[in-house]
Amino acid sequence: MVCHREPDDQTATWRVQEAKLHRVLPYMGMFVGTLLAVTVPTPHDFPLRVTLVIAAAATCWVAWFITLHQDWQGRRTLMACYYVGMLAFAAALVTASPWYGFFAGIGYVHAFFALQGRWRMVGVAVTGVLVATSQSGGLPFVSSSWPLWLVMVLFNLVVGGGVTWFSSVAERDDANRKRLVAELTSANERLAETVRENEGLHAQLITQAREAGVLDERQRMAREIHDTLAQGLAGIITQLEAAEQSRDRSADWLRHVDNALDLARESLTEARRSVRAVRPEPLETARLPDALAELGGRWSTRHQVPASVHTTGTPRPLHPEIEVTLLRAAQEALTNVARHADASRVGLTLSYMSDVVTLDVRDDGSGFDVGGDVEPDRDGGYGLTAMRQRVTRVGGQLAVESEPGAGTAVSASVPALPGAAA
C-alpha cells in the first residue's frame, strides 16, 4: 500500500516555521516599541531609563521561557505563568509608553500555544484591552476620551475573538484529522498484518488442498483399478481355471478361453479410461438402465447364470458420478456372486425415486455371516470395502443382508442428483 504523504510533510514544515516565528515576534515588537519610544516620545511617557529597565526585564522574561527553555512549551502550568507575566510586562510598558502596543499585540499570537480552552479567550480579551489602550494614546488619553477607548476595545475584542475562534476550530479540525490519520495508519498496519497472516494461511491451504487432491486421486485410481483391472483379471483367472478343468470338452474349453479374451480386452480398455478419468464405456453410449441390462446380459452369458435386470420408476439423467457409482457397484456385486456365491440366479433392480436412486442386487447363493469379520479375498481384494467407500463418497449408503445358505442382497442408495439431459 502506497501512501501519499506530501501534505503532511508540508504541514510539518509550516508548523516548524510557525514555531520559529512565535519565538521571534516578541523581540520584533519589543525592538519597534523601544525604537519609537526613544525616537518619538509622547508627552506622558515614563522616564526613558525606567521604560528601558521594564523593557529589558520583559525581554529577559520572554527569553527565559521561550528561547532558552523551548521544551517548556508543552507544559501548561509554566506556559500559563509565562503568559500572565508577559501580559503584566506588556501592561507596564503600555503604561510607560503607548508605543509598546507592538509588544502587547504578541499576546494574540502566544495565547494559542501558551493557553488552553476558554483561557485563550481571556488572554485575547486582556490583550485587546492593552492594544486598545495603546491605540488610544495611553492611560492619560483614556481618562479623557474613554468612549473612543471603549470603541477601540470593542473593535479589538471582535477582531481578536473572531480570529481566535476560527483558529480554535481549525486547530480542533487538525487534531481530528491527526487522530483519523493515526487510526487509519493503525488500521492499515493491522490490515497489512492480516494480509501477511492470510498469505501464510493461503499457502498452507494450498499445500493441504494439494495433498488432499493427491490422496483423493490415489483413492480414485485404487477404486478404478479394483473395479476394472482387478475384477477383469479375476474373471480371466476364473475362466482359465474352468478351461483347465474342461480341457477334454472342446466346446466348453473354447467358450472359457473366448470369455477370458473378452475380459482381457475389456480390462485393458477400462484401465486406459481410468487413467484418463473418463466415464466407463457403457455409460458413454447408453443410459444407466441400458448399461446395467447390457452388463447383466454379458455376465449371464459369461458365467451361465441367469441374471434379470429390472427398472422401476421413471428413468432420468443423473449426475455422471452417481451413474458411475451405481454401475461400479453392480459390477462389484456381480463379481462377488461369480466368485463366492455359487448362485443359480441373480436379480438386479434399479429404482428411481423422488430424491434417491437405489440399486438392489440379490442372489440365491451360499451367503455369508454379515455380523462376522470380513476377511480379505485370497488375492488381496476388498470388494465390499471399495463398494462402500465409493457409495459413501457421493453421499449414499450401502446395506448388505446375508446369512449362510440364504443368499445375499446388496442395496446401494445414492442421492438422485440430476445430470444433463441426453
Automatic annotation (TrEMBL):
EC numbers on record: 2.7.13.3
UniProt GO molecular function: kinase activity
Residue ranges of every copy of the Histidine kinase domain listed in the record: 326-418
Keywords: 4Fe-4S, Coiled coil, Cytoplasm, Iron, Iron-sulfur, Kinase, Membrane, Metal-binding, Transferase, Transmembrane, Transmembrane helix, Two-component regulatory system
Pfam families from the UniProt entry: HATPase_c, HisKA_3
Localisation: Cytoplasm
Protein name: Oxygen sensor histidine kinase NreB
Keyword Transmembrane helix among UniProt keywords: yes
Coiled-coil intervals, chain numbering: 177-204
UniProt keyword ATP-binding present: no
